[in-house]
Design goal:
alpha+beta
């Protein structure tokens, strides 16, 4: 669609058309210089927008690695706390089962540590340091915790459930 001046409306907005028209009609070098400067500025800006520098990429990778290491440390702490809760839960099951065993075995705890409930509960505890002691009148069991290797969780026939020193766990008769 031609306008009354002899050019299409879209041609008015192109740089070449404006530069040509101004140079033909006005012979003004200053206006032509404005367009060429604009063209140079535009090419410099586009050079900066083409990608990231190596330094920028290295900084981003460093930040991501620092954040991931912090997160991994926190996640392992939460996993170990979950394992500690599992140790406490597996040992806490022994208190009521000990009472049932006592009632069913002529008021004696002899053989309680070899019963299937104790064997299954202790096998669920992943730490290597786990112990059970049973005599005719009392029993006690303990297992090492994961968040602090110097601590163990202890339960006994009196219904005591608490953390103790791991060094005491091997020779336990009742929870201290």
């Amino acid at each position: 669609m031609k306008s009354s001046k002899g050019f299409t409306p879209l041609e008015v907005f192109s740089e070449n058309f404006l530069a040509k028209k101004f140079s033909e009609t006005l012979k003004d070098i200053k206006i032509i210089n404005i367009f060429t400067k604009y063209k140079k500025i535009k090419s410099k800006e586009s050079r900066f927008l083409t990608g990231f520098t190596l330094i920028e990429l290295l900084v981003v990778v460093a930040i991501i690695s620092i954040l991931s290491s912090i997160i991994m440390f926190s996640v392992t702490q939460y996993i170990n706390r979950g394992k500690d809760a599992s140790v406490a839960g597996n040992l806490a099951v022994l208190v009521p089962s000990g009472e049932v065993y006592y009632d069913n075995n002529n008021s004696s705890y002899d053989g309680f540590c070899e019963s299937s409930v104790v064997v299954n509960s202790l096998s669920e505890i992943a730490s290597a340091n786990k112990h059970c002691f049973a005599s005719a009148n009392a029993w006690a069991a303990c297992g090492q915790l994961f968040t602090n290797n110097l601590k163990a969780y202890c339960v006994d026939s009196r219904g005591v459930k608490k953390e103790i020193d791991n060094s005491v766990c091997a020779n336990i008769t009742v929870c201290p």
